[in-house]
Design brief:
This protein is α+β, with helices and mostly antiparallel strands. It is built from 8 helices and 18 strands. The protein has helices spanning 60-64, 87-100, 108-121, 197-201, 204-212, 258-269, 281-289, 327-340, and strands at 5-6, 30-37, 41-49, 67-69, 72-76, 82-85, 133-142, 154-164, 175-180, 217-221, 229-232, 236-241, 244-247, 274-276, 293-300, 304-313, 316-319, 351-353. Strands 1, 2, 3, 4, 5, 6, 7, 8 and 18 form a 9-stranded mixed β-sheet that branches. 43% of the residues are buried. The chain binds 2-OXO-4-methylpentanoic acid. Belongs to the class-IV pyridoxal-phosphate-dependent aminotransferase family. This is Branched-chain-amino-acid aminotransferase. Its EC number is 2.6.1.42. GO terms for molecular function: transaminase activity. It is an enzyme of class 2 (transferase).
């Protein structure tokens, strides 16, 4: 990979109102691009003005979905510094996804350097309001013009930046979900553990149905027996049952979330037992009926912590934590965002000042 070149935008865009950002609707002035050609490797990294890219209509990504992406965030800290949260974890996962999708590996250090330079250049776009951040979206697409089904010989890596508010309009307020027992998100041996567009595309129909029925998200079950809980919406999921916290074990069809890992580390540091194991929807509802289900929440980079207030399975609907944000959910949200924004100590070295 040769040296990063920077072409600055001549006209800078007006910044959006940071009280009404929504999620992923605005994009900064610049983006990072880099190409891969078989025999040459990754080459010509450059930061250029943000804008459309030209692709051949036969580019393989359009036809067979050979793509991977990541999601991470940058913050302005209380002391006016700029930070990334655990970027090493995201870049490691990017290469795990690349391997699954037969996309060439990327040098994580060089990519982190490129992302750091991009965020530094567009640092005025990092919003400072509560529940806001600069979302960083690295992604790789197969660009070779060819209709044959095989690994492409040409790729493009891009990194785009978006100032964001809460992912869900509910923010840290509880969402309602239903147990999806028709469609599945991922199957054993499939691509569930990779961050690739197909996993999300296949989930959209269930999400649309959930919306029509008045729910925010669906609780995904395993694709083999439709019995064990895997994820919630596009997030990992946790349940506090009888004093201990349970999250589905990484089975191959579940994404290894960076927030999932941070939540487990924090809970354990607070002396709370966290168990990674299979948990069936029947066990979950049984615990709820017996009054043992204390809290349920989703975890992800975009929403951080999303408490679950109600759950519906077939005809049965239960309230969790009285439909309120539970104590652990709130403490986790405050701790993670506090570390991210530099208002709390960073005992695990997760804040990466750039
Ligand atoms: C996340 O929770 O960070 C996600 O994966 C959601 C993203 C697809 C917007």
């Amino acid at each position: 990979m040769n040296k990063l070149t920077i072409v600055k935008a001549e006209n800078l865009k007006a910044k959006p109102d940071s009280d009404h950002l929504g999620f992923g609707q605005y994009f900064t002035d610049h983006m990072l691009v880099m190409d891969y050609t078989e025999g040459k490797g990754w080459h010509d990294p450059s930061i250029v003005p943000y804008g459309p890219i030209a692709l051949d209509p036969s580019a393989m990504v359009f036809h067979y979905g050979q793509e991977v992406f990541e999601g991470m965030k940058a913050y302005k800290t209380a002391e006016g510094q700029f930070s990334l949260f655990r970027p090493d974890m995201n870049l490691k996962r990017l290469n795990i996804s690349c391997e699954r999708m037969s996309i060439p590996q990327v040098d994580p250090e060089l990519l982190l350097d490129g992302i750091t330079q991009l965020v530094s250049l567009d640092k005025d776009w990092i919003p400072e309001g509560e529940d806001t951040s600069l979302y960083i979206r690295p992604f790789i697409i197969a660009t070779e013009p060819c209709l044959g089904v095989r690994a492409a010989k040409q790729y493009k890596l891009l990194v785009i930046l978006s100032p964001v508010g809460s992912y869900y309009p509910e923010g840290i307020h509880p969402v309602s979900i239903f147990v999806e027992d028709e469609y599945v998100r991922a199957v054993r041996g499939g691509t569930g553990m990779a961050k690739t567009s197909g996993n999300y595309a296949s989930g959209i129909r269930a999400q649309e149905i959930a919306k029509l029925e008045g729910f925010s998200q669906v609780l995904w079950l395993d694709g083999v027996e439709k019995k064990y809980i895997e994820e919630v919406g596009s997030m990992n999921v946790f349940f506090k049952i009888g004093g201990e916290v349970i999250t589905p074990e990484l089975s191959g069809s579940i994404l290894a979330g960076v927030t999932r890992d941070s939540v487990m580390t924090l809970l354990r540091s607070w002396g709370i037992q966290v168990i990674e194991r299979k948990i069936s929807v029947a066990e979950l509802f049984e615990a709820a009926r017996e009054g043992k289900l204390e809290e349920a929440f989703g975890t992800g980079t975009a929403a951080v912590i999303s408490p679950i207030g109600t759950m519906k399975w077939g005809e049965e609907q239960i309230a969790v934590a009285g439909g309120q944000t539970g104590e652990i959910s709130k403490k986790l949200y405050d701790s993670i965002t506090g570390i991210q924004k530099g208002v709390l100590e960073d005992p695990f070295g997760w804040r990466n000042i750039i």
